[in-house]
Amino acid sequence: MSLYLIILTVSLAGPLALSFEKNLRLYTRWKYLLPAILITMIVFVVWDMVFTHLGYWFFNPIYNSGIYINKLPLEEYLFFIVIPYACAFSFYAIQFHFPKFKLSERWTTILTFAIVVLSVIASFLNRELSYTFVNFLVLPAVLLLSYFFAREVVQYYLPIYPILLIPFFIVNGILTGTGIEQAVFDYNPEVFMGIRILSIPLEDMFYNFSLLLLPLALTHMFETRFKRVENA
Q1: Residue 34 burial (10 A CB sphere; 0-12, 13-18, 19+)
Q2: CA 227, CA 232: separation in Å to the nearest integer?
Q3: What separation, in Å, do the N-terminal and C-terminal C-alpha atoms of the chain show?
Q4: 0.85 exceeded by the pTM?
């Protein structure tokens, strides 16, 4: 089994098993969550394919199964299912056990638009760095979509996201080379700022922000719409 697949298996095992916990019962949300993750996967896989074909990042063959689809290893496709699901579990678990752990409407608005403005500025200040530029344009698009159509999610997500960074630093740290001889995947130094935390490019924290928020927002939108139709 490849190291990449082992990391994904370990990341999924706990959240999947605990999805059937009698109080949280995350499995009851699967009909909304899984389509949301699939849509997110399509968006990010297309981004991934384009950047891989352009040589902006690459995958180390010694750490994956060797099964490639359009230059992406099989594990990379699974990444966009496993990681959003594992983090969605963490998000809903924190929300369930700490229902008051959220921002007020006022602070949600202030922080949302502050992040959007700073992201757009960061993007255009780094126009020559492809990963940085695209990353900081995708983030405000995802955040604004979430704010206008799933504001309750944003109210919880903004304070919860720093907690979600804990498993992010563990998993992404290993994938980008922390504690192992070579990175599972790495980046062309010409496309990002070159600032790393451990072995993780700074931009990955914001990439992760968008990757995890989008399926949560879509899940909320699907669930809300379904309940409206059901009650009509």
Answers
A1: middle
A2: 8
A3: 50
A4: yes
The structure tokens listed for 99 are 């229902």
Using alpha carbons, list the distances in angstroms from residue 117 to 16, 55, 79. Answer: 36, 29, 29
Residue 116: both structure tokens together: 């959007």
Q: CA neighbours within 13 Å on the CB side: how many for 139?
A: 26
Give the C-alpha separation, 134 to 132, whole Å: 6
- In eight-state DSSP terms, residue 4 is H
Task: Say if CB 182 and CB 62 are below 8 A apart.
Answer: yes
Round to whole Å and give the CA distance between 128 and 119: 15
Taking the C-alpha atoms of residue 213 and residue 141, their distance in angstroms, rounded to an integer, is 11
The pLDDT tens digits along the chain (232 residues) read 699 999 999 999 999 999 999 999 999 999 999 999 999 999 999 999 999 999 999 999 999 999 999 999 999 999 999 999 999 999 999 999 999 999 999 999 999 999 999 999 999 999 999 999 999 999 999 999 999 999 999 999 999 999 999 999 999 999 999 999 999 999 999 999 999 999 999 999 999 999 999 999 999 999 998 877 777 6
